[in-house]
Amino acid sequence: MEGNTTALTVLTQTGADRAALPLLWWLGPITAIVALIFAIHFYKQMMQKPEGNDKMKFIAQAVREGAMAYLQRQYKVVGIVFAILFVIFLVLSFFKLQNPIVPFAFLTGGLFSGLCGFFGMKTATNASARAAFAASNSLNAGLQVALRAGAVMGLVVVGFALLDITLWFLLLYFGFPMIFPNNFISVTANPLPQITAIMLSFGMGASTQALFARVGGGIYTKAADVGADLVGKVEANIPEDDPRNPATIADNVGDNVGDVAGMGADLYESYAGSILATSALGVAAVTLAGSGLIPGKSPLETGLIYITAPIVLAALGIVLSILAVYLVKTRDDADQSQLIASLSRGLNLSSLGIAVLSLPLLYILGLPNFLAVWICVLAGLVVGLVIGKSTEYYTSHAFKPTRDIAEQADTSSATALIEGLAVGMESGGIPVAAVVTGIMVSYYVAGGVDNLLMGLFGVGIAAVGMLSTLGFTLATDAYGPIADNAGGNAEMSGLDRSVRQRTDELDAVGNTTAAIGKGFAIGSAALTSMALLAAYLEEIRLVLSELRHVEELLVRGEMIPVMKMTMDNFMDFYNVSLLNPAVLAGLFTGAATAFFFSAMTMRAVGRAATGMVEEVRRQFREIEGILEGTGRPDYARCVAISTAAAQREMIAPAMVAIIVPVVIGIVFGIAGVLGLLAGTLITGLSLAITMSNAGGAWDNAKKYIEVGKFGGKGSPAHKAAVIGDTVGDPFKDTAGPSLNILIKLMTMVSVVFAGLIVAFGNGQGIIYMLFH
Amino acid sequence: MEGNTTALTVLTQTGADRAALPLLWWLGPITAIVALIFAIHFYKQMMQKPEGNDKMKFIAQAVREGAMAYLQRQYKVVGIVFAILFVIFLVLSFFKLQNPIVPFAFLTGGLFSGLCGFFGMKTATNASARAAFAASNSLNAGLQVALRAGAVMGLVVVGFALLDITLWFLLLYFGFPMIFPNNFISVTANPLPQITAIMLSFGMGASTQALFARVGGGIYTKAADVGADLVGKVEANIPEDDPRNPATIADNVGDNVGDVAGMGADLYESYAGSILATSALGVAAVTLAGSGLIPGKSPLETGLIYITAPIVLAALGIVLSILAVYLVKTRDDADQSQLIASLSRGLNLSSLGIAVLSLPLLYILGLPNFLAVWICVLAGLVVGLVIGKSTEYYTSHAFKPTRDIAEQADTSSATALIEGLAVGMESGGIPVAAVVTGIMVSYYVAGGVDNLLMGLFGVGIAAVGMLSTLGFTLATDAYGPIADNAGGNAEMSGLDRSVRQRTDELDAVGNTTAAIGKGFAIGSAALTSMALLAAYLEEIRLVLSELRHVEELLVRGEMIPVMKMTMDNFMDFYNVSLLNPAVLAGLFTGAATAFFFSAMTMRAVGRAATGMVEEVRRQFREIEGILEGTGRPDYARCVAISTAAAQREMIAPAMVAIIVPVVIGIVFGIAGVLGLLAGTLITGLSLAITMSNAGGAWDNAKKYIEVGKFGGKGSPAHKAAVIGDTVGDPFKDTAGPSLNILIKLMTMVSVVFAGLIVAFGNGQGIIYMLFH
What we know:
2 copies of one chain form a homodimer. Chain A is an all-alpha fold. Chain A contains 24 helices and no strands. Chain A has helices spanning 2-14, 27-48, 54-94, 102-135, 139-179, 192-200, 203-235, 248-287, 299-327, 336-365, 370-395, 400-409, 413-426, 429-445, 452-467, 470-492, 497-556, 567-573, 581-622, 635-649, 651-706, 716-752, 754-759, 765-770. Chains A and B meet through α7, α13, α14, α15 and α17 of A and α7, α13, α14, α15 and α17 of B.
């Protein structure tokens, strides 16, 4: 740390007059690097384990190749999209509708998120055979391999995100004024509002990457899964993961693509977005509204302390996440609930650590309202906890809702479907109540009554608090597909039944953590979007004043001070009241967009699955001896089909997410955009929870029947439940999680295109201009 | 009309100084009475037709008795609820939290809506056998009987609604100042804002009645339908409407209960609500904001003209609806599309009549902005048309979406379900776009930029325009179940195949009109709620000033002028900006409530159907010779089960609709309530369309297969489609339509409990008070 402080001193001296950063700020880059070091450590540790016999290696290699082939293809498409958006941003910044730094920051955000996906997938696909082999020794050994491989993903995500944010901040705060004096970032005034507003649009890179990872991954995994099941299980009557099924490798690849890379990119975006939005809101709260200023400190110095708050929380979370990984151990005769308990121990202790340690850290940081901010952190943690528990209640067959579905399956598939849809629609109640309570508590405790922005800063802190232990929660998420693949490897390579039993146990726990992870992803997306939504208005205010500034310069040929606009008169100017028809138009459109987008992703799975079904049928028909185990199925072909379908099918939904906010902005103005974002957020939250939980409940109702209830496997109840599970697949793994991305991406698109929207009639939209 | 004008003169002279009503206003009560006279005429005409042979009479009698038994039971429950609410309103008015007239007006609203249900059901259940008998002569004869019976329902609804509104207005405007001078309604000042605000809460009676009719009816009809199908069609392999099935009478009763009485009450509420809200907004626009005043006329006189505008449109619509009934004729060899064309002729010509004739009428009325208001009428008509066409596209098997579902059914039931859900979720796009466009056009054309309230008045006018031809559109809706029942009667009484073929043709057209009717009901609910939402704020403003008035009187013991609060400073006071966390809390809760309520109604159907399944199985098991046609099934028992289940199951959803707005109001204040209403409205609209259209599309995909595609009846594709249809039943006939009621009822509850909410911290809610 000594060396870093020296570097800081050098920068401030050679650059412009910059106040020093609070010492605690440096925890950010330091822990980010620590996270990456531990990720490498866990990766090496895992790679040293033996991968088992030749057949295991062969299968693992096939999955690995499939996954990498998918990633290559995806990154090619992503590359094209990034290139197009990069050029658009360049053009926008040429016309002064965007800060010229944004196009480049956009690239790094996308790059780091993409790297996370790459490392996460590489680790997961290397770990599955090793986990299977380790499980042949003991349950704990298997658990350790799978969890630590998952931790690589978790730590890479938090490490890269925090590193990206802190490095760019250093560059913008110290570097740019030195390299380009009097350019881009104003030197003399308080530069923090401008810097944080620019950094907001970094999220756009992560958002775009997440869109492709989550939506594409979701389509891939379910096309392969549904295709493999419909022909393999139903028509050919061969078990799951049977090596004779040509789609089985694609199915295993899909688990990695959807649940490792997709989930990681989704949460990378939330994690980065929440920190960036919270920083922007904190700075705006103290510099614009003036309240929250620390006695004896300038607005700049106060702003730096507020910026540091989310960084400190993230840093603390990283340390605790690493410790939590070491806390997870299990006995070899552990049953299901003991396994869950050992994972929960890690989660609970890291959350408890945040709750206890954040208070002194925030105090040391010198936040004047440290107690209030600490309560916001607690609120975020509690919201995460409540959503997790609620998800468990609605989707685990230990509880009534899922058992009710199984009971209805005993009557008919139609009643099981009706019951499952009802369970899904009901299950939004508690999470939404938790999110609402979390928003209200953090807003008011942080002081939202006197200072709107400080209240929103509190909401942002709640989001950061909820996501602070992401390093560990993501590890338990990524652990699931690794255990699942380990089971697939054990099955395909014909290992002893006891091994498969152990991996099944690990996998079953993975289903629970995956369901909780999905709830967590949705909840954090909601809180993050709330913060982004508020930060969006900040961005608009800034763009507006910059635009005027430029206009004035052009007209008068001289420099005038940028207009002073308070949040209050700004709110008058952009009437975002519910009775403004532009807001209502936005709200209605936002709700419809959430449904429309879900329809697109659902149907994409349907189309992609149809292609897979046809290919598997063709192979069964044309490859001799395939069902007898003598003919070799063409795995690669199925992998290629899923890969191509995923890339093809995600273009249309992606366009919707990017184009709708721009069009609404141009037609209805800022008020319309804000309505749109709020409409998508509120409807998307309920709809996503409905779909995720209905899917999870159907899945587990099927599993409940499979353990022997209502006639067990092969009974009419089981057949009915399988239909429910198949309908639930795109619900819970494609459409539901994709909505998180839609919500966040639309907000990010609005942020980066804010300049364009403002340029049309000062943000009031064509409609407004027409009638004036 | 001469006599009426004299009566007016007498009233004004003996009562207070009241300006005369515009002559055109009197068209309201006159056409209302004309509608009722024609309803009686059509009823008598229908009753004179022969009811067929003894078996037909017997079956018709059984359905009639079942329907009346249901109504009796429902009215008993409704009676209890009305008594409780009546007492609550009395208590509220005792504490000056409610105008003392409201409790009584609440009763008449409920009474008239209830009478509509009674007459409509009585007519429909008397018409079915007669329609079947007439169809044995010719297709046209059957059509005439069914349509004119439907017209009774249509005309009774518009007649009673308009009569209720105009009579109360006369009483409040002329009668009360005379009977109770200086009481309840102020005499000297312009009383219109107060009168229209009081009249808004009339809708509460209609809303409560509609809740029970629509939700209870929806549960009844689907419990009977699913129960009859699951045991009869699937297990016992007997055809639909087979007299051996004990649930078949209940099923036929259900058609009447759900599609006649339920739909009627739903649209009664929209019709009355749109007129009441538009009147309130018109008056507020000219008296508060001042713009729109007619030169040379006082605010009172101008207000009367604005109040008359929606009345004139409704009156014109009634006349055109009656004419349209006479326009519908068909040849006996008419095919499906010719039948639809003959019904469309009536609809198109009545809409065209409104479009052409409303312009001169609005001009004669003396509206200064008659051209703008006329464009709002057109906007409403076009929105209704677009929603109807879009619904037809998504749910008729003449088009791609439904055929795609049938194609997917050929793969598996799961893919058919996924496709159907996708079709439903996609189908909201066009209707929502239409509603948004309609709102924007009418708001801005009416002058919303300069006068917010005038813009909202325009939105209200659009709703009234859309609903103006309700007399006829409701006739085509109610015609459906009558034709359906006629088919059932023909089947059960063993009439010639040709008769059943004719009634099937009539019924198939009924399916299309029913689907269009549902879209229409949802669209009008959205526009009406928009207007009610705005009118709600008006109500709050008024309550607030009254409360202050009373407070001042109590404290000072003297009279002071009520505070002058403009809409603008009022909006500042109640910050309904999207960034107010109370608004966001409301929005989130509103979205979740729409999903939660749907879950409740779906599950209610599931539970009620299970009871029915058990009863039918029991009868098949215990009644000897029942399947051979020698044992007599116990129809009444099934009717009683559906009736009891419907009443029992609707209590919980009803409580949600009534309690949630009150709780949110007390906790989060006015801003929270407005957020809640907007959230339920925007999410409910998309969700309701999704469910209605998915259900309709599944139903027709099944029918498409039944006409011989993909293997026809009994094929695997057909079995898969039947599962889709069964899942779709509660979607389209219970949960979807119930959302219309939820949206409107929650708004009405907010209106009538406004006083209570305002009493808590001036409408800012407990949360706000806690942090101040």
